[in-house]
Design goal:
There is one protein chain. The chain is an alpha+beta fold. It has 20 helices and 19 strands. Strands 10, 11, 12, 13, 14 and 15 form a 6-stranded antiparallel sheet that branches. A hairpin with a 2-residue loop joins strand 2 and strand 3. Helix 5 runs antiparallel to helix 6. It is elongated and about 115 Å long.
């Protein structure tokens, strides 16, 4: 069956080459070849679909004669995880990428109109670069040795997000190719002023899908990896973030193009840059360059030369075209006046672009330092120092945006006053309450409040007047999301706690008891009871032992509240000896209770106080119980090479004590007591070490992110259809409320 998969890849390659050449001829004016060019493209798409269907069949049927199937699947995986092994390795993801791009190309054939020929030629060229990689390293390679069982899917990937996140991520990667194709066609055909509008829905679709995948990946890391955050600025994570940032700059430059025919050159360049960054990120992720710096990187499969050639080819072609047409692109000023929306958007686009460049530089550090004596990566401090000011600047810009007209002049002075006042009040509250006095956080929270008030006011007013602009809703979501991100990352409270089994430990307002362990198919679960005022829940902390590998994978427990998340992450397991309850340490004059006895260490007595080395030393103790007081003197005899500890009884022989040690540094004595109520031998116990932390307002990050990409999705929909839907919804609401008003009357 595997040989069929290879045949399908070869057939798809041949059809793609023919389609590319035929579309080139159509582009040159031979319109009669359009039908056959489309036909060959459809054949190529069909063969790509058959190839991915073949690999999926081999996975589900557990054909371990295929190396890819053996490397990533096993018979014990549930069906959902089994299907997700299709994109669990490099070859599978390249095949998935090819499939998605090919299917989307079918849509572009019938929607690109006058851009079809050029776009499809460049799209075929991109598909050909993916096919070259699959020909070099096929997912249908056979094992040299027969295996009856597979290695299985990495335990970190055995999560329901694995079934959702990578497919959506690669939809985003595929969608980014299409604005690039429009830009290339525009440069050759001199369609500088119309291409971006034609590619608008593709750009928005790529921005929404890639951004949604980023948030999904962040939540996956948050609930699975146990380090307590959702974005570690890992180089591989950043390789997906960078093209999204550049796409964000392009989405906003579209408004300048609509209003003033400005930023034409920049728009072409930034679309190229977003596509280049996808190819560059693919190289970084899959070349092995980041193997020492990222938990997400793949090993080198021998395809580095193909990745480099593909990157250089597309960068070279697009750079040549940009330079060739640069002077021919007649652009206008992107703004007419400083006090205008167009000026604010222009500044915002520049700042967003700068954020992408800074992230790109930080991500490239392992590659840039690869040939030095000590290859390194920048820490999270770099991103805090660079990206936080950018976030603050963006928040101030979106706070001001609704208050100005597009070309010149103030639009809503009252909104400027109310929004800025809300931001100022927020800053004063934070300072007065002592929540924070750090300038960067005060600016961020103040600007976020201002932006939220300004944009939400416009959103609500628009809905009431049956007008809706998704951009304002996206700005509302961004202000909420950045507030949650800053609060949860900058003001989390974390403690490391050791929980001996069966003992109750209090920390952060909870009484925690490590009650028991339950064996599972993959390892064991630790159960920890959490009790606070009026609340009780059990945190189940899985410990799994990966198949065919060493070590243990620990998963956290997340308890969600409106104001914060309680994040419980297992760190280690220890077998420890319990403290002997009969062994106590005393300083001179110190008193302690042991059951009914109040014991006070009064002083030391020596047999010869003037001797340099006394032969005996006693600790004078006062024992009080039941209205009685005894004074006893357990002692140490220092005779020759031996030290003899003399035991002394009290309470009519029902208890005894002897000296277990003396600390000359602080003059304390360690005493060992024996009584019926004390155990003779300390017990061994298992202890669970956890990190427990509170993540304040993190729900705002997830909720705000949802609003951002909901707004992006709505922006893809035709504006007239969207407003018709909103109007119908509002009218239905009005009709439902009419009887209530009449009854009240």
């Amino acid at each position: 069956m595997a040989y069929l998969g290879n045949y399908f890849i070869v057939a798809a390659t041949g059809c793609t080459i023919f389609s590319m050449l035929l579309y080139f001829l159509v582009w040159r004016g031979d319109e009669g070849k359009r039908y056959i060019a489309r036909l060959f493209y459809k054949f190529a798409t069909t063969f790509a679909a058959l190839a991915i269907a073949t690999l999926l069949y081999l996975i589900i049927s557990h054909d371990f004669t295929v190396a890819y199937v053996h490397s990533y699947s096993s018979t014990d995986l549930p069906l959902g995880y089994l299907i997700s092994t299709l994109w669990g390795g490099q070859q599978g993801t390249f095949l998935l990428w090819l499939f998605y791009t090919s299917v989307m190309g079918l849509v572009m054939i019938y929607t690109a109109k006058k851009f079809e020929s050029g776009n499809m030629m460049f799209l075929n060229l991109f598909n050909l670069s993916l096919l070259a990689i699959l020909l070099k390293k096929s997912p249908f390679e056979l094992m040299t040795v027969f295996q009856i069982e597979g290695a299985g899917l990495n335990p970190l990937l055995q999560n329901y997000w694995m079934q959702i996140h990578p497919p959506i991520m690669f939809i985003g990667f595929s969608a980014i190719v299409f604005p690039f194709c429009f830009a290339m066609t525009a440069l050759i055909d001199k369609k500088y002023s119309v291409w971006a509008e034609s590619a608008r829905k593709w750009t928005l679709f790529a921005w929404v899908t890639l951004g949604t995948a980023l948030i999904m990946g962040g939540y996956w890391a948050y609930e699975t990896l146990g380090w307590g955050g959702f974005w570690a600025w890992d180089p591989v994570e950043n390789s997906s973030l960078i093209p999204w940032i550049f796409l964000t700059a392009q989405v906003h430059s579209l408004f300048i193009k609509r209003q003033r025919r400005g930023l034409l050159r920049f728009s072409l360049f930034v679309v190229c840059l977003s596509f280049w960054s996808v190819l560059y990120g693919t190289f970084l992720t899959r070349s092995g360059v980041l193997a020492d710096f990222s938990v997400h990187s793949f090993v080198d499969l021998g395809i580095n030369s193909f990745l480099v050639v593909g990157l250089l080819m597309f960068v070279g072609i697009s750079t040549f075209l940009l330079i060739w047409r640069w002077r021919d692109i007649k652009t206008e000023a992107s703004y007419s006046s400083v006090n205008s929306r167009s000026y604010l958007v222009t500044i915002g686009v520049i700042i967003i672009f700068l954020g992408g460049v800074l992230t790109l530089l930080g991500t490239s550090t392992p590659l840039l330092t690869r040939f030095t004596d000590s290859p390194s990566n920048v820490g999270i401090e770099y991103y805090f120092a660079t990206m936080t000011p950018i976030a603050v600047a963006i928040l101030f810009l979106i706070a001001l945006f609704p208050c100005f007209k597009w070309n010149k002049g103030m639009y809503r002075k009252w909104l400027l006053i109310s929004g800025s006042s809300a931001g100022l009040v927020t800053v004063l509250i934070l300072v007065i309450t002592g929540f924070t006095r750090e300038i960067i956080y005060l600016l961020l929270f103040g600007a976020a409040t201002w932006a939220f008030v300004s944009n939400s006011t416009v959103v609500i007013g628009g809905l009431l007047n049956k007008k809706f602009s998704p951009g304002y809703l996206a700005h509302v979501g961004l202000s909420i999301a950045l507030t949650g991100a800053a609060a949860s990352a900058g003001f989390d409270n974390t403690m490391n706690v050791t929980l001996p089994m069966g003992e109750t430990v209090s920390a952060m307002g909870y009484d925690m008891t490590f009650t028991h362990m339950v064996e599972t198919d993959k390892g064991f679960d630790c159960h920890v009871d959490f009790v606070s005022e009026g609340e009780h829940f059990v945190a189940v902390l899985p410990h799994e032992f990966p198949k065919n590998s060493e070590g243990v994978m620990r998963k956290p427990h997340v308890k969600n509240y409106l104001s914060h998340d309680l994040y419980v992450a297992p760190v280690a397991m220890n077998n420890t000896e319990q403290r002997d309850p009969g062994t106590l340490s005393f300083r001179s004059g110190e008193s302690r209770w042991l059951d009914k006895y109040k014991i006070t260490f009064l002083k030391f007595e020596f047999d010869d106080p003037e001797a340099i080395t006394p032969k005996a030393v006693a600790s004078v103790l006062s024992i009080e119980y039941g209205g009685r007081t005894e004074e006893i003197r357990p002692s140490l005899d220092l005779t020759g090479q031996k030290i003899v500890s003399n035991q002394v009884t009290f309470d009519d022989g029902s208890a005894s004590v002897k000296i277990a040690g003396i600390n000359p540094e602080d003059g304390s004595v360690v005493l060992k007591f024996k009584a019926d109520f004390l155990p003779d031998i300390p017990k061994q116990t298992t202890a669970l070490i956890i990190d427990i932390s509170e993540k304040p307002l993190i729900i705002l990050f997830w909720a705000g992110s949802f609003l951002v990409f909901l707004a992006g999705s709505l922006a893809i929909v035709d504006r007239k259809k969207l407003m018709k839907t909103i109007s119908l919804s509002l009218s239905r609401t009005d009709k439902k409320t009419e009887p209530a008003h009449e009854a009240a009357a």
